[in-house]
Amino acid sequence: GINAENMxxxxxxxxxxxxxxxxxxxxxxxxxxxxxxSESGGVVGLLEVIEADFARLEADTTAAEAAAQKEYDDFKAxxxxxxxxxxxxxxxxxxxxxxxxxxxxxxxxxxxxxRVGRREEEIASLQEALKILSGESQ
Length: 138
Fold this sequence. Notes:
The chain is mainly alpha-helical. It has helices spanning 4-7, 37-40, 42-105, 112-134.
């Protein structure tokens, strides 16, 4: 802690230069007036109070920071696990959908030439339907 010796004030009371005179106690007092130094602790006492307040504030802040860091770490771990689960579910769903689409994309026993022929027939029939609807062929 802080005390008068380690602050260099131990011999300050003995100094004679710029020393103030102590007031004389009035005749009604039994003892000489010595001020309120013993009750208040003076500047050193104030510094000790400040030091204790700072130590308590530092401890409270350190504890709050540790709690906040733990909360953040827990949240980060939960989020990472949830992301992993979501990613796995998404990949699984995509693979199921791919397996569902695969038969329509893979050779279904019809040759390329047959598919081109069917497509050309379909285009021709659509063009004929367009002519009928627009009134060209009646």
